Please model this.
Amino acid sequence: MNFAAILPEIILTIGALVLMMVAAFMGRRASALCSWSAVALLLGAAMALLGEPQRAGALFGGLIAADGFGAFGKLLIYLCAAVAVVIAHNWFERDFEHAAEYPVLILLAVVGMSVMVSATNLMSLYVGLELNSLAAYVLASYRRTDERSAEAGLKYFVLGALASGILLYGISLLYGFTGTTQFDGVAAAFLRDGTGSIGLLFGLVFTLAGLAFKISAVPFHMWTPDVYEGAPTPVTAFFASAPKVAAMLLGVRVCLDALGPAIDAWRQIMTFAALASIFLGAVAAYGQTNIKRLLAYSSINNVGFALIGLVAGGVAGASSVLFYMAVYVVMTLGAFLCVLRMKNENGEPLEGIDSLSGLSQSRPGLAAALAVFMFSLAGIPPLFGFWPKLMVFNAAVAEGLYPLAVAGILGTVIGAFYYLKIIKVMYFDAPGAPYARGGSGLEGALIALAALVVSPLGYLLIGPLGQLTANAAGSLF
Amino acid sequence: MIAIFAFYLFATLTIASSVMVIFARNPVHSVLWLILAFFNAAGLMLLLGAEFIAMLLVIVYVGAVAVLFLFIVMMLDIDFAALRSGFTKNLPFGLIVALVLLAEIVVAVSAWKAGPVTGGAQPAATTQPNIEAVGELLYTRFLFPFEIAGLILLVAMIGAIVLTHRSRGDVRGQKVSRQVDRRPDEAIKNLNPAVGEGMKL
Model:
C-alpha cells in the first residue's frame, strides 16, 4: 500500500487526534496552541501534496485516486481552511469556551473534503461528504448561546440529512443497475446501456440532486442564506470557500468520470442549475440588507458560473471550473475578511449593509479593499474576477453552447447591480457611525494579499495558475 | 429434525412476543417483549445461515435501539391510557394498513411461486462463513471508507460534547492527592463532652 500518496490526509488525521487530546486536557487555554498548530498542520499537508499525492493514481483498489485534479483541490481547500482557522482565532477568543475544539473540527472536515476531491468510488464519495457535512453542522451552531446560530445549525442539519438521503438513494440506484460503485464501472455501464434504462437515469438525477445541494445550486439552495447568516462569520467564510471547492470538484469528477457517457442527460440538468443559480442569485440579492445573506446569494450566483464550465465539459471546461473556483475563493475570503472588520465601538459585530455607509471617509483602506472584491465578484474587467468568467464562457462557446454563454453574460450584468450597490453605499452615502479600530495585523495582511491577487496584478498569475489547472483537469481524462 | 424444531420454536416465540408487544398494558413490558422478539428473529436468521445479520440484530436492535426505546419510554411522561382511548377512532385506518399488508403478502407469495426474482447476480456459494467474508472485505478492500466512518463517529462525539458541555463553576471535583495526603490527626477529633451539654463542632 502506497501510504506516501495519502500523506496529507494522514498528517491531518493524526494532527487532529493529537490536538483533540490537547484541547480536552488543557481546555480553553489551548485555544491559541491548537489554532496555530492546526494552521501549521494544514500548511504541512499542503507541502506534502508535492510528489506522490499528485501522481500515484488509483489507491485502495480504486476507492480513491491520487491525481493532479485531487491535489489541486486539496491545495485550495487547505489554504482556505488555514485562513478560516486564523480568522476564527481572533473571533472566538474573547468569550468562548470550546474555542480549542474549533480547529479540530475544521481539520476533520478538511480530511472529509480531501476524500471528496479524490474519491473515485461512490462509497468513498459518500463517507467523505458525510465527514465534511457532519463537522459543518456542528460548526454552524458553534455559538450555541446565539439563537440564530443554533437555528442555522439545525436547519443545515435537517436539510443536509435530507440531501444525504437523496444522494444515497441515487447511489443505491446506480449501484443496483450497474452492479458496481466504481466510477469507471458506472461509466462503462452507461456506455453499454445508454440512458435508456430508467433506473440508471433516476440514479443519475438523484445523485446530482444530492450534489447540487452541497454546492447550493438552485433549486437546492434554500438553506444557504439562512445558514450563512446565522453561522458565526469565520464559519460562514469557511462554508463559502473550502466545502464549495470540494463539492464542486466532486461534482466535476462525478459528471465527467462516472457519468461521462451520459453527458446528454446531465447536461440538461446542469444547464438548468447553472442558469437558475445565476439568475436567482442575482435577483434575490436585491432586497437583502444583511451583508452575510448578500454574500450567500453571491456564492449561489458564482456557483452558477462555475457550473457553466462543467456543462461545457472536456479538459477546457474542467480547467475553467478549477480556475474559477481558485479565483472565487480568494474574492470570497477577502470579502468575508472585510466583513469581520465590521464592528461597532463596543466590539460587537455588525452585519447590516447600511452600516457600511460612508466607509470611504472613515476607513478608506477597508472601503477600497471591499470595493476591489465587489468589482471583482461582479466580473468587471480590469480586475481578476473577470478572467475566470471569460474562461467559462470561452469553454461554453468552444462547445457551441452559444445561448448558454449569452444567458450567462446577461446574468453577470444583472448581478453586477447589487455588487455596485455596496460600492455606492460605501463611497456616495453620508458616513454613519465609524467602525471600531484595531483587529489583528495578520488579518489586515490577508486582506491586502487577497486584494492584490484579485487586482489587475493578478493577471500575472494567469500563466502559472492556468498551467496548474490545465494539468489538473488533464489528469481526469 | 432439530432444525425444524428450532424453527418452530423461534417462529412461535417471535409471533407470540410480537403479539405481546401490542397487547401489554405497561409500555416498559412492551419494550421487553420487543427485545424477546428481536432475539427470536436473530435465531431465525441463524437457521438461515445469516450469522452476520443475526449478530447485527442483537447488537444494533437489542443493544442500541431497544435500550433507546426503553430510555425514552421511561424519560417521557406519556399518558398511555389517553393514547389507547383513540383506539376506535383509529380502527378504520389500522384496518386499511392491515389490508395493504395482507395484499402485499399475497402478492409476495404468488410471486415467489412464479420463481426467483434475482437477475442472474447470485452470490457465489463459498464455504467461508459470511462474518469472515464481511470482516475480510472490511479490513482489506474497504479499509479506507471504514476508517473514515470511524472519523465520522469521532466528529459526532466531539460535536455532541462541544454543543452541550458547559463547564460550571460550582462543581467540586475529587482531589485524590488531597485525600491520600490526609492524616488521622487532621481528620479525627477526640472529644469528651460532658453529660447534657452536647457537642461543639
Remarks:
- The mean pLDDT of chain B is 84.
- The CA atoms of residues 159 and 165 of chain B lie 10 Å apart.
